[in-house]
What we know:
The structure holds 2 protein chains of 2 kinds.
Chain A: H1 3-19, E1 23-29, E2 33-36, E3 46-54, E4 59-67, E5 73-77, E6 90-97, E7 104-111, E8 122-127, E9 132-134, E10 150-155, E11 163-167, E12 188-195, E13 201-204, E14 214-217, E15 226-232, E16 240-246, E17 257-266, E18 268-273, E19 281-283, E20 294-297, E21 301-308, E22 319-323, E23 327-328, E24 331-335, E25 340-348, E26 351-361, H2 368-373, H3 381-395, H4 397-400, H5 408-424, H6 427-443, H7 448-465, H8 472-485, E27 489-491, E28 503-505
Parallel strand pairs in A: 1-3, 2-8, 10-17, 20-26
Antiparallel strand pairs in A: 3-6, 4-7, 5-6, 7-8, 9-11, 11-15, 12-14, 12-16, 13-15, 16-17, 18-19, 18-21, 21-24, 22-23, 22-25, 25-26, 27-28
Chain B: H1 2-19, H2 38-44, E1 49-50, E2 71-75, E3 84-90, E4 93-102, H3 108-122, E5 127-129, E6 138-143, E7 147-153, E8 164-171, H4 172-177, H5 187-192, H6 195-213
Amino acid sequence: MTKGAFGVMMIVMMSVARLSGVQHYSVELEPDTAKRQVIAIGYGACTAELWLHPEAPWRIGSSRIAAQDDFLWSGPYGSYGMSDPTPHLHRYLMLSARSSREYVKITGVLTQDGSGGTPPPRFRVTVPAVDIDWAGYESAAQENDEDTRKLFCPVTNDVSKCRKLVIRNPLDSGKLRDDSSLLGFSPDMRLTLTSGYADCFRLRKANGTVFNTGSFNIHNIPSWPLELYVEALPNRPPCDLGITLEGPAGPDGARTMDRIIGTTVLFVDLEFQNSHMSAGKLIDPLSPPRDVRVGVVQGDTVKFKAKLTSTVTLQNGDYVWAGMQSGNGPEIDITFSSVGTHSEQLQVLGCQDRMGRTTVVSVTGSGEAAWMAIHPQYWISAPRLRDEALAWASNNQAALGGGVRNGRADAARHAYWNAIMTFDWNAADAEGLATAHEKTGLDNGAPHNETVMDLENNADGRAIGGGGSTNRVQLQNAVIAALNAGTLTILDDLGNANEVGFLQPSNQ
Amino acid sequence: MKRAFMFCLLLACVAVAGSQNNDLMPDGFEQIHIGMDWRSLVALRPNAEIMNMMPDSGEALKPDPERPGSGLFENLPESAVFSVVYYNFEDGVLVAVMFGKEKGRSTPLERESAIRRVGQGRGEPTKIQLTGKRHDQGVISWQDQNLHINVMVPTDEAHATQSVVGLQVMDRKYAERINAIGSVDDTEMEQAQQGADKLRLEAFKSKVKANLSANGDNPSK
C-alpha cells in the first residue's frame, strides 16, 4: 500500500470514528516533561484520539509512537481532513481497542524560534494499561471476547480445582529519564469484586491463603504475573461475578481498568459403585485426558452418583444423565447387559460435564475344574504352561515394570500365558481355559475390574500367540512390545481395595 | 417308625455301596471315592493344591480344610502310574477324579491294562469314541446308575497332537451336567465321521474288544 493510499484510508477511518463517537483527549506538551493520559475503556471496543498541543511558544519538532499493538494506534495526523501533522498539533488515533490493549508511548522534541544550537527539549506522553485475564485466555486476540466470556468457577475449597486468573505487571509511565519509578502518582492498584449475591466468592493465592482485595501496592507483589484463584463459596446459589482491576491513579485521580466476568457453579464429581463395592469411587474429572475405564461384568448393576461439593439442594431436573442410560436426579442405576465399552455423561446446571467410561465383559460357561474335566488332552500340558508363564513373569518382574498384582507384570503374565496356550494348542481352547479360570474367580468373589483386566490381557495374548511367532523368545518379545505400547491393560490402583482401580493402558 | 428308619438306612447303604469305586482307583488311591468330602480328601492327599490355572501373586494354593473349593490338583511322583490327578468338587463333595499321564511316557501294555482293569469290574463299555468335539483320542466309557468312567488312550496318533493316557471317574449326574465325554450322544460328531475315520474307529473298537475279551469279558458294542 502506498503512503498516499494509506493516508486516504486513515482519513476515512477517522471520519467513521468521528461519526461513531470518538473520545478526545487533549494533552498539553511541556519541555522535558512526561505526561500520562488515562483512556477510559469500558465495555466493548473503544476508539480515541490523543491531541498533542505544545504550550506556547513551543512547537512540536517531531514525534514518534511505540505502541503495545501497532495495529491499534496510528499517527501523527493533523486536524481532521489533514493527513500531515502541524507544529501545533500531532493527533494520534487509537482504533477499536479493548481494555488492556491501549498502552502507548509517544516521544518527541519541542522547538521554538531562535532555539537552534541547543539540544531541543523532549516530551513523552504515555497511555497506561492494566491487564487481568482468565488463565488460558491470555492472548491478545482473546481480549475481544473478554467482556462476554463468562467462565464457570467451581464451588470448592481445593485451590487446585479453582479457576485461575492472571494479573500482569501494569504498563505505565515512569519519569522521563528513569522508568524504574512511577511519576508522581500512587503505586497502589485496586482489585474490586462484584457479585450478584453477597460474598459468593473470594480470591486465594496458590498457597491457599486469602488474597485481600481492595488496594494493593504493586511494589509488594513479589513476582509477576500475579496468579490468583477464584474460590466460589458454598451454601450460596450460583451467582454472576466480576473482577475489576484498576491501575495506579495519576495526579488527576484517573485510573485505567480491565475486567473479567464469571459465574459460580457447584463443583460436581461423578462417583461409581458396583455391586461388590461397599462405597463409591470418584471418577477423576481429569480422567478424560487419561484413558481410564471402569471394569464391569455383564449383568452387574453400577450406581453412578453426582457428588456436589456444595450442600445446595438441586431439583432432579438439574441433573441430566445421558449416554448408556438417560435420566434425571442425583444418581442413576445402570444394569449393563451388553458387552463393550460404554460411556455415561452427567451434566449439572447446564455445565460441568462429567463422564464415566465402562468396559463390560461377559463371563459365562463352566469353571476351570469342569473345563479341565472335558478337555483331557490338556491335563498334562495345562499346568506346565501355567508354570511356564508364572516363572517367566516372576523371573522378569523388574524388567516388566513390576506390579505382579494388577500391574504390568500381571498383565504380561496373563498375555504370555494365553500366547503360549494359543501357540501350543489353539486360540479357542486357550480362550476356553482362560475364561473358565476367570469364571471360577468370579464365583469365588474376584473383583470385577480385575476380571476385566485379565480377560483383556488374555485376549491380547491370544492375538500374539496366533500372530506368526515361531518360538518362545518371539512370543516374549511380542508381549513386552504390547506392554510398552500400552496395548495391555493394568489397574491404576494396584492394591484395588474396594475395587477402586480403573482400567488403563499398560504404558501409563 | 423304627422299621421304616432301618429300611431307609439299608437303602442308603446299598446306594453308597453301589457308588463305591475302590476297584477303579490306581494303587495308593484306594481310599478316594466319589461322594467323599473336601476335608477328608485334603487330609488324605497332603500334596494336593487348589486347582488354579493362573494364580495371582500371593494367592494361596494350599487348601483350607474348612473352605471347600471347586477343585484340587496334584502332581504325582515319577514312580506313580499316573503323573497328575485332578479332583473336582461341588458343594464340598467330590464329583470327579481324573488321572493323567503323557502318552509318550506310557507303553501299549499299560494302556491295554488300563482298559482291562475297568472292564474286569464293569463289563462292556457303554460308548467308544475315537474323536469328539473336545478331544482327539480314544475314549472308552462305562456308565452305571451312579458313576461315569472314562479311560483315555491315544489311538493311531495320526492327528492326535494333544492326547493323554487317562482315567476319569465321575459322579454320573455331574458328568451329564457338564456334558462329559461319553455321557452325551455325540451324534453330530459321529455323523460327520467319514470314510477313513469310520474305519479307524472300527479298528479301535475291535482292539478294545480284543483287550477286554482276553480277560473273559464279552463286549458286544
